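re: that chain from earlier
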Amino acid sequence: MVEYTLSQEGAEELERARLALLEDFCDPHTARQLDAIGVAEGWRCLDVGAGAGSATRLLAERVGATGSVLAVDLDTRLLGPLESERVQVRRHDLLGEPLPQAGFDLVHARNLLMHLPGRLDALRRLLAAVRPGGWLALCEPDFNAMSVSPPSAEWRRAWTLFCDTAVAGGWDPGYGSRLLGDLETLDVVGVEATVVIPYARGGSVPARLFAGSLERLGERMLALGATEDDLTTARRLLRDPDVSYRGVTLTIAWARRPD
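^ sequence. v structure.
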């Protein structure tokens, strides 16, 4: 089982707040992705790495009373309230346990692959759960072009240590830029993608989201050489409405498994 560096254990309130911001930021893009695919009444869907469940809720709204959604994650504590006749919740380790084969009209994963080793293997496992003619829907971030304006040396150092800490924890902070190419190596057709680059002010949802990630990884960053002053300044800049913030680049991609 892969260790997840942003586990809720010991930081439940901080992680719930960070996940709420993540959902506010990502849900509109996920909704447009599901609409482009045409997720509809009666579909059987799988949400892998479901987190706090907002994508599961979006799917459940679309599949209606005759459809179903299976939401899986290493930690299902935030998913329990979603269980219903339409939604099933299950603890699952993608790289260690099999998924139902060819069992779903749509398999969805958001901000998941960046945290996993063997990402091509993970993609193959996700695709294998899609029925012939069904859809694979993905979203992954790339942190490599993030910046603030006016420029700040403290911000730059904190951002660099964030990326180093992510790599040390098994992440690929630039995986979003590789997602489309990796998807195209699979046996899929009809590949489509949208790339989103948010430009926002300090205090906005994407800026507060990254500030939350800095707070969650703060101790690990300090262990790799970050300073408290740099982290404090970076978080202050992310709250300052006079600061312009270029956030993570999101690649939102989808493709169909051949009939």
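The radius of gyration is 18 Å.
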